[in-house]
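Predict the 3D structure for this chain.
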Amino acid sequence: PPNDQVRAWLEPNWDAWVLAPPQWFTPRFVKRVILAAPPAVLPLTVLRELAEKYSKGGQGGGHRQLESAGSEHDELRPATDAGGATDADSIVQGNSSNIQQSHRFENTSREELVRMETERRASKAFARAKQVWIWAAALVFSYVDLVTTVVVGLQYLSLKTARGTHAAHVTFIMLGTSLGIQTLATHCTGQGALASLATMFGAKPLWDTFHQVSGRPAQGSMSADSATGFTRFLMVGLDSLPQAGAQSLLVASLDPNKRSELMFTSIVGSILSISYLIATQELDAESSIHTLTNSGGVVGYLPLDDQRRQAVVMVGIVLFTSGYLAAKLIAMAVLASASLTVVAAWCTVEFGVFFALRYVAEKGKWRFHTAGLDTLVPSVLGQILFYLSMLAAPFPFLRIPNYVGPTLWLGWVAYSLLVNPIMVLVGFRSGQSSNVSTSEAEAWLALGISSCASLIGALLMASFMNKSHRRTFCFPCSFVRYVDELWEERTLLHFSDGSFATGHDASRGNIIKMSAKFWVSTEKLRTWLASWDEWEAEQPRWFADESLKFQTRIIKYAPAEALPRTVLLEILTNATDHRGNPLRMDPEADTVCLVADVQQVRRDATARQRAQRFAKAVLAIR
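Done. Predicted structure below.
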C-alpha cells in the first residue's frame, strides 16, 4: 500500500500494540516492519529507538571498536528467527519498557530521525556490499589457486618425462593429503558431517562463505567467522603454501626449455592468493564482534573507525605477507637447486629450534589449546603447521598466545628475513651451485625487491594500526597467563549465535571449553565451582545449554580436588566397577574420601579405555 496509508496506520497505534500486543502483533511482524518498511513510514517510537541504539553512546555504543565492527560486519547478515540480536529483536524486546523512558532524541524532529535512519541503512548496505565483495574475492582466489594446481599437475604429466611424472605425482599427492588433513581437522572441531564432506571435495570455502553471507551459525562451538578463519589457515598452511614451495622447487629443477608461463603464473597466483586470504582473514577477525568481545584485548589493531587508515593497513598486510613469502621461496629455491639435503636439514633444525622456543614461551606446554585438537597427533600437526606458516606466511593473528605468541612471532619474522640472504649465499657458494639455473644477480635482485616490499608492508602496518595494540605484536605472554587474565578481567561474552552474556561466570564458563590442560589453577577453579548449587537452581544458559557442554567437561576433566561435593556424588552415583555393576559408595563420606574415590574411578575408566583400544588394535592387525 502507499506509504502515507501505512504510516497513518502504524503511527497512532504502535505504542498501544507494544503495551497490549494483538494476536497478529508477533516478533516476526515487528521484524518485517522494522527491516522492510521505508524509514518515512516507521512510527516515531521506532525511529527514536533505532537512533538511540546506533548512535555513539547509545545502547549500541560503548567500545569504539565494537561500534565499528557492528556496523561493518556483524550487522551485515540478514535477520533470522534463530539468530542473534537484530534491530527488530532489540526493539520488540525493549520497546515496552523504553516507551516510558526518556530518550536523547525525544526532541529530535521526525524528519531528522528519518534522515538518520536512511543514512544508516545506506551505510549498512554499502558495508554489506563491500564485505560480500571481499568474501567473493577470497572465494575466487581459493578456487583459482586450486584449479591452477590441478592444471599444472596435468601439465607436468604432459611432459612425459620421468621428472615431469614425478612432479605431477608430488603435486597431486600433496593436494590429496591437504584435503584429507583438512577434513580430519573439520571433523575433530565438531563442524559436522556435511562440513567434513564439503572439505573432502574442496568445497569448504564455499560452505563457509555461504554461512557468513546468510548469517547461518556454523555447527559446533565455532562461529561462522571462526570456522572461515580456521579453513583459510588450513588452506594456506596445508595447500597453498606447500604447493607454492613445491612448485618453486620443481620449476627450478626443470630444464629451462620445458618451463611454461602457466607454471610461473601458478606460483605467483599462489603468492597473491595466500597474501589476500591472510588479509581478508585479518579483516574478518578484526571486525567480528565475537572475536573483539571474547579476545580480551589481544585483537583490535585494525582501525575500523577510519577507512583510510584501515585501507593502508590492509595494503601493508598484503605487501608484508607477499614479500615475505616471495623472499622465502627465492631463498629456498636457490638452496634446493644446489642441494635438497641441505634444505631438508635446514628446515629440520629450524623446526626443532622453533618447537623449543615455543615450548619455553608457553611455560613448558606445547599442546594445542582447543578441545578436540589437544591430543598428541593433532598437536604435533599443529606445531608443524605453525612452523610452516611462520616459515613463509606469518598470519598476524598467529601472534595470539598459544598459536605462536607475540614475542616468538616478531622474533621469527625478523630472523626469517635476515636468514634469507644467507640461504641464497649458501646456495650459490656450495659445490653444486652449477645446478642453480638462474643467475646470481637475478636472484639477489628478486630477493632484495621482495624483502623491501615485506619491510615496507610491515612499516605501513605498524604506522597506521591502532597504537594501543602495537604491544600485542611484541609483549611476552604465555597462554596460561592469557587465560588467567581472561579469568580475572573479562566480564562480557559473545555467543556464536550473536547473543551476549555478562558477568565473570559466563566468561569463565566459556574458558572451560578450552583444553583442560590450560585451565586456571585448581585453587581458582575450586573457589569458582563452589557456586555449583546456585547455578543448578538458576540454570544460566552457559551452564544449562547442552550444546555448550559445560557440565560434561567439568565432570570429565576438572581435577577431582576442585569439584564441589554435589558433582563428586554425581560422578560416583553414575560410576560402575570393572564388571559394569553400580559402584558402592557412602553418601555421608567426607569430601576427602569422595575425591579419592573419584580419582580412582577416573583411573579405572582410563585403564579400561586403553585396554579397549589395545584390543581393537590387535583385532585389526589379525
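Residues 338 and 432 are 5 Å apart (CA to CA).
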